[in-house]
Design brief:
It contains 21 helices and eight strands. The longest helix has about 40 residues. The protein is globular, with a radius of gyration of 24 Å. The N and C termini lie far apart (about 55 Å).
């Protein structure tokens, strides 16, 4: 079968690409519409499907809550741990340097300054850090020059070196976005390496860091230890826990709920090595990144792409290792409720657009003959499962159980028709235990904000009553939007999330 698929991909490269791009939308719409038409023509099949899906959802919820608890306490312990005490046990620790790539467009200079201050305060010391401010020429000369001046005025001679790169606009074959900008920065880093004889590529890491991220003071020390201690350091990608807590109390209620759930989910994912893939802010050895020629220029989402690019380039020898340190990022924010809503929606749609990488991943999977078969199969299946089911989950767990009795009066008079909503509700009620755990972890993990009104603190746990509404507008709808656009060939243009200083 694989031989035939390989021949088809070689013979019809464009056709196979489009077929695989159509697949996510086709699958998600099929699952969403199945309870509608199936309720009329095959209600029993729909009933069993819904019950099975709800049991599966309960299982995933319980696993998520257990992992969230374990990850939270490991993060708290890791953030307090004296990583530098362990790092100093390596004779060559001072030779390690960390390249931090910060892609930016028109974000305010104060945002970048905040991120650089967090780097300056790393316990490993700023002289082992090389920030790379990856700017876009299309942002405009005035904006770029003002930010360069602001950064140089505060951070001159603080780091090993600060690099400023300027990604040209409208390069042939490129897609505007973070990945192409980072790729240009990577090319400049390679050039800079040749100028510094004291920079040893085998003792350097490179991190892709969103420009609104404030790394915990222990982050790079923990990374240094993991890097030096791992004999397979050139086959590792390190991932911290992305939490959207920098501005969580400033954003409106519905968007706050979404970002609180997303933060706990990101913590929990560190405990799932079978599902852990680098996301948003991550690190690897510079040697590994250089060997794969840095990021690709023809995609918008770069994180999953970079994992599978390294995975197949190394014949399946790459693993993502958790770094149990929180990575504090900004939630999407703008002036007023509706602009913040729109920013959040667009951000999630961009995340969901990660399914556009599935065509690349599946083609690499089919064409590859060197990575271990079952390892690559499980990895690809789990990614495809998460991406394809992104818009589907909400519809199945919230409204599907009511459709067979509603659309098929004959079925509604059967025992199964009468009990389906009750059985489904009972299963999902058990999943509320997981939600309670996530609320607890969020309460413990969320930084305490001075001056927050007492009534906001009291109402905080009850904000999750909006979760069904939030799930529709910030998970199902943007996911379905992204899948449908990809299916119809209406490719997403990169839209930078507005940042507030």
């Amino acid at each position: 079968m694989f031989t035939l698929l390989r021949k088809l991909i070689r013979k019809y490269p464009h056709g196979s690409q489009r077929a695989l791009e159509i697949l996510p939308g086709l699958v998600s719409w099929s699952f969403i519409l199945f309870p509608v038409w199936g309720s009329i023509f095959w209600p029993v099949g729909v009933a069993y499907f819904i019950i099975a899906f709800n049991v599966y959802w309960l299982y995933r919820s319980m696993v998520l809550s257990v992992n969230a608890v374990m990850a939270y306490y490991r993060i708290k312990a890791s953030e307090k741990y004296d990583w530098m005490g362990d790092v100093r046990g390596f004779a060559d620790w001072q030779e390690v340097k960390h390249v931090i790539v910060l892609p930016t467009y028109k974000e305010p200079g104060d945002i970048l300054v905040r991120t650089l201050r967090a780097l300056e305060n790393q316990t490993i010391g700023p002289k082992q850090i090389i920030p790379v401010i990856a700017m876009e020429e299309r942002a405009g000369k005035e904006i770029n020059e003002s930010r360069v001046k602001q950064i140089e005025d505060e951070f001159a001679n603080k780091f090993e070196k600060i690099m400023f790169t300027y990604h040209p606009a409208n390069l042939a074959g490129e897609v505007v976005g973070k990945s192409s900008n980072a790729a240009w920065a990577g090319m400049k880093i390679r050039e800079e390496l040749k100028k510094h004889k004291d920079w040893d590529i085998e003792k350097m890491t490179i991190s892709s860091v969103d420009c609104d991220v404030a790394l915990h003071p222990n982050h790079l020390a923990a990374l240094t230890y993991s890097f030096l201690d791992d004999p397979h350091r050139y086959r590792r990608i390190w991932q911290g826990a992305i939490v959207f807590y920098n501005n969580i109390e400033r954003i409106p209620w519905p968007m706050r709920v979404f970002n609180r759930i997303a933060s706990v989910n990101n913590m929990a994912q560190l405990g799932r090595p079978d599902r852990l893939i680098n996301f948003s802010t991550y690190s690897m050895s510079l040697k590994l990144m250089d060997s794969i020629d840095y990021w690709d220029t023809d995609v918008i989402p770069e994180d999953y792409r970079i994992f599978f690019k390294t995975y197949f380039a190394t014949k399946g020898d790459v693993e993502v290792e958790p770094v149990y340190i929180s990575v504090s990022a900004d939630a999407a924010e703008a002036e007023g409720f509706w602009k913040t809503y729109n920013n959040t929606y667009e951000q999630v749609k961009r995340w969901a657009w990660g399914t556009s990488d599935d065509a690349y991943i599946m083609k690499r999977y089919i064409m590859d003959t060197e990575a271990p078969f079952w390892d690559k199969t499980i990895r690809v299946f789990k990614v495809v499962e998460d991406h394809y089911m992104w818009p589907v989950n909400w519809f199945i767990i919230t409204i599907a159980a009511n459709l067979p009795p509603l659309l098929n009066p004959t079925f509604s008079r059967t025992v199964m028709g009468k009990t389906l909503p009750q059985v489904s509700s009972a299963i999902l009620t058990l999943a509320l235990v997981s939600l309670a755990v996530m609320i607890f972890i969020d309460f413990k993990a969320r930084p305490k904000v001075e001056g927050l009104p007492w009534w906001r603190k009291m109402l905080s746990p009850f904000e999750f009553v909006l979760l069904p509404v939030v799930g529709f507008f910030f998970t199902a709808l943007p996911g379905l939007d992204a899948h449908t656009r990809l299916m119809m060939g209406r490719y997403l243009e990169y839209r930078v999330t507005e940042k507030k200083a």
